[in-house]
Backbone:
């Protein structure tokens, strides 16, 4: 479990994160959502230690990560895997070498064992036979899957994903989302995903933290979102009329009524809700 | 105030490089890779420049030595000392600041903006030690070797030009090379080469490592790294000459 306590971060006197607290449980996909510039990436970077918070604590399984130094910090970092927005694969290394890098750096396993592990994780992300390809030869979705394979190759306890669907088509985004969800459950990892993708929220979000202008505006499950009366959250998540319709249809399904006074006959006539909204 | 801020960050970067490597084998591999990139990657341009510098020195020295009282072997002495003292260490290192320095700055800059450095940090790798130290160590090993090669090729280029242009015979040139030779000049040139190697590798590494922004900023960082390196090389050249000669 990761616990964030009153994290505050500012740059050149401008407060970017203000007193944010959250609990992210193991075996769950914990989503940090919010508009661009709301501070979700800064919050995630504070949690993984790429930024040092001005105040507050980040606890990994009860251990205060922010006050750790040197080898103690490195030990926690070895338990962290991260999927970056741009994949962050090493350009000069091929797929196999990219995934093998953490193994070569932190283990003394023989080459055969390392290769077996590389093939195992590549198979896990449904990407066989690309071992010798370089990042420049891969599509955006393949790069994300290679980066995910590299992130999980050391069996981390914590997985961080920064905008895993950015630049991907909706179908590939769903594949990545499903992989993240499956891996989280399979390895009982504490997964933290930064996203503003509505499909991801409804597909994989077990715990959702909504950031607004550097503050925690709302938290809850994806089911809570449907019934939330928070106007900022609603206008962010259900930005389009189509998504608002989908939300109302879902509420109608669950409660038999909708809180506002919209004409449901007209809404139902428009068609089915988007993927993820019609299913639990 | 920016300059003091930069100097402070540069010194912190240098201090941050000295930590225990996570895996010696991986660091050795990176060191060898950098030796290949810096050493063999620059060998061609160093060879071409050195031969032509020596050749031009011979022709221009002969052009200026018009007195019949000065023996032709003096040309070889002048070419030898000019190449060893100044052309091989300083001019070659200025060229290397452009070749190797810009490569170091753009490589690290690209790694920074594409979050590869962040990815290494998250894994628990000390990026200053893993990415910068092997580059500086490789430069300290390979650049003095390149300077020694440049000395030899420069002197040989002078001989080639002298004999081809009929300025002096090969025997006279060889005789001149041995006259009044001061071995300390070679030591002085190597001291300069070591100081310049450190500048050529650490300054671009600093600008590349701390780059912020995108492709445009990587280009700017590379240019700035080369300009600052060249200025520091010339400044260090003057200081070392004043102190050691």
Residues:
């Amino acid at each position: 479990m990761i616990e964030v306590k009153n994290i505050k971060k500012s740059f050149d006197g401008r407060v970017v994160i203000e007193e944010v607290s959250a609990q992210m449980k193991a075996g769950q996909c914990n989503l940090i959502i919010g508009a661009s510039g709301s501070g979700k990436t800064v919050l995630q970077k504070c949690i993984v230690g790429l930024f040092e918070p001005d105040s507050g604590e980040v606890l990994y399984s009860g251990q205060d990560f922010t006050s750790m130094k040197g080898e103690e910090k490195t030990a926690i970092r070895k338990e962290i895997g991260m999927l970056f927005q741009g994949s962050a694969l090493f350009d000069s290394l091929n797929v196999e070498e990219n995934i093998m890098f953490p193994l070569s750096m932190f283990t003394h396993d023989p080459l055969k064992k390392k290769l077996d592990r590389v093939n195992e994780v590549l198979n896990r992300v449904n990407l066989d036979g690309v071992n010798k390809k370089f990042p420049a030869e891969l599509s955006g979705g393949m790069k994300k899957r290679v980066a995910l394979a590299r992130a999980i190759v050391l069996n981390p306890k914590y997985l961080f994903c920064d905008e895993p669907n950015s630049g991907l088509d909706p179908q590939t985004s769903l594949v990545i989302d499903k992989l993240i969800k499956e891996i989280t459950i399979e390895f009982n990892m504490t997964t933290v995903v930064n996203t503003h993708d509505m499909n991801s929220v409804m597909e994989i979000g077990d715990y959702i933290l909504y950031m607004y202008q550097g503050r925690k505006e709302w938290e809850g499950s994806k089911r809570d979102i449907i019934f939330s009366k928070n106007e900022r959250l609603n206008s962010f998540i259900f930005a389009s009329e189509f998504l608002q319709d989908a939300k109302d249809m879902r509420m109608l399904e669950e409660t038999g009524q909708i809180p506002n006074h919209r004409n449901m006959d007209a809404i139902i006539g428009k068609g089915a809700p988007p993927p993820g909204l019609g299913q639990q | 105030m920016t300059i003091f801020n930069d100097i402070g960050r540069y010194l912190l970067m240098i201090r941050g490089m000295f930590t225990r490597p996570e895996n010696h084998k991986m660091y050795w591999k990176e060191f060898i890779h950098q030796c290949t990139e810096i050493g063999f990657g620059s060998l061609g341009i160093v060879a071409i420049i050195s031969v032509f510098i020596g050749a031009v020195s011979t022709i221009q020295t002969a052009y200026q030595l018009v007195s019949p009282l000065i023996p032709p072997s003096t040309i070889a002495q002048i070419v030898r000392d000019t190449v060893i003292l100044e052309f091989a260490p300083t001019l070659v290192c200025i060229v290397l600041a452009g070749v190797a320095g810009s490569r170091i700055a753009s490589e690290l800059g690209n790694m920074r903006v594409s979050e590869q450095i962040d990815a290494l940090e998250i894994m628990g790798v000390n990026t200053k030690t893993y990415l910068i130290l092997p580059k500086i160590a490789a430069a300290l090993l390979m650049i003095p070797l390149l300077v020694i090669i440049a000395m030899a090729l420069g002197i040989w280029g002078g001989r080639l030009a002298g004999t081809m242009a009929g300025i002096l015979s090969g025997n006279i040139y060889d005789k001149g090379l041995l006259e009044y030779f001061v071995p300390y000049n070679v030591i002085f040139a190597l001291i300069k080469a070591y100081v310049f190697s450190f500048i050529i590798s650490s300054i671009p590494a600093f600008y590349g490592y701390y780059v912020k922004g995108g492709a445009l900023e990587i280009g700017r960082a590379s240019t700035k790294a080369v300009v600052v390196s060249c200025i520091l090389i010339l400044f260090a050249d003057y200081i070392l000459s004043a102190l050691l000669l």
